[in-house]
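FIELD: query
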Amino acid sequence: MRDDSELLAGWRSGDLRAGEALFDRHIASIHRFFKNKLGDNDAIQDLVQRTFLACVEGRDRFRGDASFRSYLFGIAHNLLCDHFRARQRGRRPIDFEALSAVDLGVGPLTILGQRREHRLLLQALRRIPLRFQVVLELSYWEGMTSFEVARVLGFPAGTARSRLRRARELLGEELAALTSDAALRESTTANLDRWAEELRDGWLRHDKRGRRRKQ
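FIELD: result
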């Protein structure tokens, strides 16, 4: 199996199948990136398409000094911020370090985890500031290193590590605000890797079923 750099090189050389393989490899992750930050399925689909369109248009601007995945998520992150800015046009500038998806008017999820921990985690993630939500989800759902997260968000790797620590603290505060069940809070916090992995895999299966029905 060719890695991303090989597929990208083939695509730049005119191999359309290489480009399609590159998109197929990453489309589920990009869809998942938008899914827990937007309540509108049409908006999610639009931003997914715009992410890959921007990648097509700017494919020769990718310098290869980071992973292609970081480059792609960087595009997705910028488009997400632009989406919220457009919704707030004419109002105050948005501080993504302070405002959460809930603050920005995102509606309820249409798909929730079956376990109580899943539901609680998704709710809490949407209630912490968007920039910290992104850091947590890139780390736990996408398995990105601090360096990769830093490349996506445009700050040093050391800053990414400190943001991750702060994001976990904020998540713990929201979990405490959402439930008085100490055992549930402890289970969700202590097993964050596990719940994040189960949610990621569950959403991936759901998205694959949805794509098969559309075919």
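FIELD: remark
The CA atoms of residues 35 and 44 lie 6 Å apart.
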